[in-house]
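tool_log.txt
---
The assistant was asked to compare two proteins side by side. It first ran the structure predictor on the initial sequence, then on the second. Raw inputs and outputs are pasted verbatim so the downstream comparison step can read them without reformatting.
(1)
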Amino acid sequence: MTMLVPRRHRSLFDPFMNDPFDAFFSNMPAPQATPNLMRTDIKETEDGIEIVIDLPGFDKENVAAELKDGVLKVSAKTSTENEENTGTYLRRERFSGQCSRQFFVGEDIEEADIKAKFDNGTLQISVPKKVEQPKLEESRTIAIEG
């Protein structure tokens, strides 16, 4: 019985692009890359900014948004529970842990202004534009002495 194991794609030019450190690091485990984690689209609208973050596999209870000093921080965590250890993984691509992203939205934005909705693994955040109100000139009376 043969077992299929995914192979790393190698191009024709790999022999010419060898890194001298490859031999040193070949015995080390590869870092766990998560290229699809928290993919974000940011769109400016007439009313403000729309932020859409993909969070597949996360539950709403494990997603949080916090505003501090004009920086919106979105964090999410997930864990794998009740796992059976009946075999050895040859490749594991499911994420377990926490991640976060930060966005500067402006120091004049308040928590009450921001609206967020989590649906089907997608977090949608609406941040309104703050329109500066023109300051009305106050009439001040100057006291004249004498």
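(2)
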Amino acid sequence: MGKEQTHLKTIAQNKKAFHDYFVEESFEAGIELCGTEVKSVRNGKVNLKDSWCSVVGGELLVNGMHISPYEQGNIFNRDPMRVRKLLMHKKEIMRLFGLVKQDGYSLIPVSIYWKGSRVKVQVGLCKGKKLYDKRNDLAAKAAKRDIERAMKERNR
């Protein structure tokens, strides 16, 4: 047999993370979900807007991730805002824990996606932006948009 084919299909992205933080490095982690949560994720009912990660007792946990309850799930539904465990190697978790404690970084879930038949979370090692950084980013984005618009008009 050849190489295993992996298809990545994005479920949700945390656009606010790119606005509020500089994403220095990103890591892939598995996530521990129950059955009805997986069905809800399959329907795209995930919100990463105000979520963050923490290291507690050598385990990486994601807080504030909202997975809506599955409509047909009745008694098997879990709390939509419950703390969920992320699955990474212990050495990676300890390295991230050291960086977060010393250098003032934050661990923020950037996106959640399917990799084959498994749900994966992309965790970003982020440093907070100041207000002037956000303004500079908005000004650069507006300038780029104006340039593209002018080039489009010129090429007509």
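---
observation on (2): The helical segments are 15-20, 35-42, 90-103, 131-155. The radius of gyration is 19 Å.
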